[in-house]
């Protein structure tokens, strides 16, 4: 229908080209296809699909309970409505190396431009919480190598996330990042850096693109885009921002409606019907439908 014009391969090629530009690419999180459409219309660089958000939207905590099919299919639903590249969180890869390899192939088929996979032990948890555990670097290297070998499109971006900073310290996290690059990771996601000095140290140590996670209420200060660009980072994600904004507004407004008995006092907080129809291109669908039968069928004499 009137969804994205570009196929997955084209979006992956666009992502690779943008990464090579040296500019900071900004990827807000989308918890639904509708949010992804809005992200594109506002002119962002790409769409991020958070594993935590997907789990939370299902009423689950972010501890690795979602399945590969749940995550990949939701990724497809979000990626298909936009011409922007979409990257998705696949937690620990949904199993051992063979499972991680299968996941990469599924993501390519479903139009995703990239993913990140982390080195936590299941049950995993949010990267900005204490009490995490990580697998051995050797085990993670095996998984990354399997995932990298499974790629059929060289433009698919495999991002290795390490949560080891909080457990083993910065130096060990850097060692892991280097090992993950050697195993085939196209980019590194160093989770829960303590301060700008640590972001800078990771940049100096690793030559591939780096992703910064600017999640609210976490261990890292919320750095401005200009600060991250000066530090040499290539991608920034705002993973849970849109969900937090939406849920904050929903919770507050529902309490008000319950108290007052109607919605009149919260109408100015809502997206209007007109604006919603603009985002989903309602008029374009109407034009599309009217164009299907805009001719006259001439009567002919049977031969």
Architecture overview:
The chain has 13 helices and eight strands. With 303 residues, the protein is of the alpha/beta class. The chain has two domains: 233 residues, Phosphoenolpyruvate-binding domains (TIM Barrel); 45 residues, no CATH class. The chain has a five-stranded parallel β-sheet. Strands 1-8-7 form a three-stranded parallel β-sheet, with no helix packed on it. β7, α10 and β8 form a beta-alpha-beta unit. α8 runs parallel beside α9. The mean pLDDT is 93.
Quickly describe the structure.
The protein has 303 residues and is α/β, with parallel strands linked by helices.
SSE inventory with pairings:
Elements: H1 8-20, E1 25-28, H2 33-41, E2 47-49, H3 51-57, H4 68-79, E3 86-89, H5 97-109, E4 114-118, H6 137-150, E5 157-162, H7 165-168, H8 170-183, E6 187-190, H9 196-205, E7 211-213, H10 225-230, E8 235-238, H11 241-260, H12 273-279, H13 282-290
Parallel strand pairs: 1-8, 2-3, 3-4, 4-5, 5-6, 7-8
- Count of separate structural domains: 2
Beta-strand share of residues:
5-15%
Q: Would you state the CATH class of the largest domain?
A: Alpha Beta
Sheet with the most strands: spatial strand order:
2-3-4-5-6
Beta strand count? 8
Contiguous runs where pLDDT drops below 50 for at least 5 residues = none
CATH topology of the largest domain: TIM Barrel
Going by CATH, what is the homologous superfamily of the largest domain?
A: Phosphoenolpyruvate-binding domains
Count of individual helical segments: 13
Specify the overall morphology.
globular
Structural class by SSE content: alpha/beta
Rg result: 22 Å
Name the average pLDDT: 93
């Amino acid at each position: 229908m009137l969804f994205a014009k570009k196929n997955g391969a084209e979006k992956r090629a666009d992502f690779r080209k943008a990464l090579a530009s040296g500019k900071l690419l900004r990827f807000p999180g989308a918890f639904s296809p509708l949010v992804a459409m809005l992200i594109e219309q506002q002119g962002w660089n790409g769409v991020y699909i958070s594993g935590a958000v997907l789990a939370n939207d299902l009423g689950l905590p972010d501890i690795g309970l979602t399945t590969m099919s749940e995550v990949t299919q939701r990724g497809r639903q979000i990626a298909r409505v936009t011409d922007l590249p979409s990257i998705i969180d696949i937690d620990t890869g949904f199993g051992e190396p063979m499972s991680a390899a299968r996941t990469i192939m599924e993501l390519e088929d479903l139009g995703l431009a990239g993913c990140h996979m982390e080195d936590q032990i299941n049950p995993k948890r949010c990267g900005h919480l204490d009490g995490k555990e990580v697998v051995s670097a050797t085990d993670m290297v095996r998984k990354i190598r399997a995932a990298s070998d499974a790629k059929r499109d060289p433009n698919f971006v495999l991002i290795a996330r390490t949560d080891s900073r909080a457990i083993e310290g910065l130096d060990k996290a850097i060692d892991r990042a280097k090992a993950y690059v050697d195993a085939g990771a196209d980019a590194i996601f160093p989770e829960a850096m303590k301060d700008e000095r640590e972001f800078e140290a990771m940049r100096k140590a690793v030559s591939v693109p780096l992703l910064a996670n600017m999640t609210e209420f976490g261990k890292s200060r919320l750095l401005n885009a200009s600060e991250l660009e000066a530090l040499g980072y290539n991608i920034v994600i705002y993973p849970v921002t849109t969900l937090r904004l939406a849920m904050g507004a929903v919770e507050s407004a529902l309490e008000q409606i319950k108290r007052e008995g109607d919605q009149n006092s919260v109408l100015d907080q809502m997206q209007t019907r007109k604006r919603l129809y603009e985002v989903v291109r309602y008029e374009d669908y109407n034009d599309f439908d009217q164009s299907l039968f805009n001719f006259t069928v001439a009567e002919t004499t049977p031969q």
